[in-house]
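Standup notes
- DV: blocked on the single-chain target, sequence here:
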Amino acid sequence: MVEWKISPGLTDYEEALALMEARVADISAGTAPESIWLLEHPPLYTSGTSSRPEDLIDPDRFPVYEARRGGQYTYHGPGQRVVYVLLDVGKRGRDVRAFVRQLEAWVIAVLDAFNVTGELRAGRVGVWVTRQDKPLGPDGAAPEDKIAAIGVRLRKWISFHGISINVEPELEHFSGIIPCGIAQHGVTSLVDLGLPVTMEDVDVALRREFDGIFGDPADPIKAEFLQNVKNPQP
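- DV (later): unblocked, structure below
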């Protein structure tokens, strides 16, 4: 059983870290079930284990927290669905790369529910959308914007941190950092793409698509979906 929790309002980041740490310990000890925690944070920047100081462009704009997860600088704020994924990867195959691919597939499945094609790119973390509505770049290619970030950490094979999906955040807030160290591409959101999607809509899609990705590994529907997730493109 996986426990689902939705926190109303804005959750303090340090409080969230402390609660995640405690839950990871309880899951590892067998005293609490796995959990998916959905929340929003006040505006802030987080620093991953691969962050570069030069990618923090405006350090005084919002609070900056050391997240101790994989990845580089990311932004969290109102209108962004943060999904903390507290799962026992040890019982789910002990394959970190496969687990990250499942997270990517989950995001892609959620976006597909809103007729948005999410894609992976080699050398770039997260999920991307091609902007056919924007002018072509100097190389003749359509621009690509990031719509979801992924960054996890494992302790005793229990995962924490997770993913964030841009529903309707203030996109200008990303300008204080180079998101995930990638300067040549932008960021977008479901609402920025012209979709009247609410946070509740995204929560429903997250819950609906979860079992198809993280359920029974012998489920042929799950196996087929994972097989069809697009491989990263150059």
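- Follow-up: The longest strand covers residues 144-155.
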